[in-house]
Design a protein that fits this description.
The chain has helices spanning 2-29, 36-55, 64-85, 95-127, 133-151, 154-157, 164-183. By secondary structure, it is an all-alpha fold. Helix 1 (2-29) packs across helix 2, helix 2 packs across helix 3 (64-85) and helix 4 runs antiparallel to helix 7.
Amino acid sequence: MSDALSFLITTFATLFCAALIMRAWIFWRRIPPFNPYSKFIYALTDFIIVPVRKIIPSSQHIDWPSLLVAFLVCVLQIFLTTYIAQINEVYPINIFYVFVYALHTLLQNMLTLILWMSIIFALMTWINPMAPFVPFLRALIEPLQNPIRQILPNSLKQSGIDLSLMLMMILIIALQMALPSLLGIA
């Protein structure tokens, strides 16, 4: 029973965290709120972000309320799953552990979201480059690809095949693997 409950908590927290990260990403890229995909993300997250925004304003490029709430969702997820795992034990929950693992979870969720959006973007551009979702994905993914494009050798830039997306995905996976060590939790 506890495994099923932990699974449900993790699943819903991850999906809601992804929506909050996507909202911050949309804000960073200045995608108009009347875009149907932006409107959907806003509809999912407005119930919590609108009140938080009254207390913590966004900066010019960073949607701090969305990122803060995403972090708090990760804190709640780690706390609840740890509590459920230790329900029959007497050990107290280490709050430092909860916050470090919540940061790890938030960063992993961010990287996973970027990776999945990149995969969907690659597939959509191959299958149906004229699909209405492609410009939205392009607006999100292109700024992350551009630094990689700039460091590619000229021979690869002129080859006719854009390898920057593949290299970006490889870097994301490598960063996901290194993240526990970087945070000192490995």
